[in-house]
Please model this.
Amino acid sequence: MAFATTAYAHGVAEGDQGYIEQTSGPQIIAFLYLGAKHMVTGYDHLLFLFGVIFFLYRIKHVAAYVTLFAIGHSTTLLAGVLLGTNISSYAVDAIIGLSVVYKALDNLGAYQRWFGFQPNTKAAVLIFGFFHGFGLATKLQEFALSPDGLLINLISFNVGVEIGQFLALGAILIAMGYWRRTASFGRHAFAANVALMIAGFMLFGYQLTGYYVA
Model:
């Protein structure tokens, strides 16, 4: 059970959970902060975004993919909570782990070699964005959310997520910019995506274990 709890705990910290359950009425700044904190500490989101931008060299391409992810993430986060749509958060997080695996395999060119075709990468980012947002929606629904100010707080939380995503992505792009200018990038790009794939399988395994032992 301790293993499962560890695997599950990355969504919302216990202290933040307590604040969310105790607060009532519009709390724009607080929920902006919580949303941004969720993104910059959400290693599943960051791993997926790292995979998405790994071979994107132009800012307009990065912006296009990140916008699709944000649309998917925002849609299911807001709709999931407001409509009360919910399934096991372990199951959703297991799919999120597979999203990391998918992107690593895509970067490795596995689909073209194995199946002879290239999946629509933009559609895949949008679809997995839906799952990433729904994963957080399932966690939020496990808390005693006050209906007073719920919509404003959810929108603030989501805006905070986008702010956090912008900050985290900026840091990743700066680091990638330096790395790409070195010979190391060409030598280690394959290994980096293999490591990304392994991390995705580990996330999938953790969440699947949590699903069965919870």
Summary: The two ends are 7 Å apart (CA to CA). The chain has a mean pLDDT of 87.
